[in-house]
Amino acid sequence: MSRPAIYLKKGRESSIQRFHPWIFSGAIAQKRGAPAEGAVVDVYASDGTCVATGHYQEGSIAVRILSFSGPGLPNDFWMEGLRKAYALRERLGLCLGRNAPTTAYRLVHGEGDHLPGLVVDYYQGVAVVQAHSAGMFLARAEIVHALKELYGNDLLAVYDKSAGTAPYKAGLDLQDGYLYKSDAYNQTDVHTIREHGHPYVADWEQGQKTGFFLDQRENRLLLGQMARGARVLNLFCYSGGFSVAALSGGAALVHSVDSSQRAIDLLHQNMALQTLPAHDHEAHTADAFEFLKSSPKGMYNLMVLDPPAFAKHTGAKKSALQAYKRLNAVAMDRIAPGGTIFTFSCSQVVDKTDFALAVFSAAAISGRRVRILHRLGQAPDHPVNIYHPEGDYLKGLVLYVE
Fold first, then answer.
1. Is residue 314 classed exposed, middle or buried when 0-12, 13-18 and 19+ CB atoms within 10 A define those classes?
2. Tens digit of each residue's pLDDT (9 = 90 or more) over 280-323
3. Distance (Å, rounded) from C-alpha 322 to C-alpha 341?
4. The pTM is what?
């Protein structure tokens, strides 16, 4: 039985020739074979040449390209895709086993690993899978089989956390849960991972994202290197990764703030795991904006502003930029002279230029002299496909405020 096919309008194969992994619905001239949500389809140029194979989905992004050399996918497609992703993480020094300083990393980062719509995070023996497309959700059995072959006995479990990311309108059975458990799973404390030698709880069952914010790994390390003697305010702290980094770097005090009591509970668990010298740490369940506005001027000389995505679609971009501007303006007003601010945006629709302009506007409002020390992004195990700049989602600036 032949696969469904997508035929493009004349000239619309140019984006494929530039290796962009998305085909938008407006580029399609016709569909043959009535492709269902998540189906593997072959893509043809107007002259009848097969130019790609990918996952079909209703909506603006109609096809996510898996191969630029269709028709069809090779039999070893999933295994080879995961092997290449693993080889990159080996080059980054992240696949060193359970006794390594860092035991958690992102194995697959969607388009950045040429597997659009798929995220796989590896937590010391447990692979957490997130499908962001119907096609990847329907391919979970093949993905689990490839993961088991890739990791062998080191793979203790595979957990699917796609309920909040896969398209709910596609009629999928979206329910998080384990796709695989080895006999050794229950005898191993796999919920504790290490990052740069520090233990953390990774809660993939109830926590945000896949259980831990792996993309900030190197930024936490940098903050720790700049924290000695500092009075630190960590806003939107979630499970306290930046707080642990600051305390391990010798901060004089750290105040952690999040509106979620669940996040604060995780933070307390992480603090209990540390073997740090006596330290001054307080956790506050509070609105970050309100806490910042009510803090005495000059109390803190190192701040972390790492809010959730203020804009998840282009329609919310304008209001998001206003929110980033307000947040950073208050922080610059409150921070002590000679203080440092780590400020971030994880909103994909807000690019680096937009974010920098929002922070520039905040500096102008504050009337303070501000210098940029570092421009930050996601950790290297979250690679950006050079043909898909949309994957460069995490923006960060380290600011020195006179």
1. exposed
2. 899 999 999 999 999 999 999 999 999 988 867 778 888 889 99
3. 18
4. 0.93
Separation of alpha carbons 185 and 291, rounded Å: 41
In contact, 323 and 310? CB cutoff 8 Å: yes
Residue with tokens 């210098």: 371
Q: Which residue has the tokens 């919310």?
A: 316
How far apart CA 86 and CA 92 sit, in angstroms, is: 10
CB 162 within 8 A of CB 127: no
CA angle 181, 184, 190 (to 5 degrees): 80
Contact 83, 39 (CB under 8 A): no
SS3 242: helix
Structure tokens at 49: 């040449």
Q: What is the pLDDT of residues 338-362, one digit of tens each?
A: 999 999 999 888 999 999 999 999 9
Residue 133 near residue 122, CB atoms below 8 Å: no
Q: 20 φ, ψ to 5°? A: -75, 130
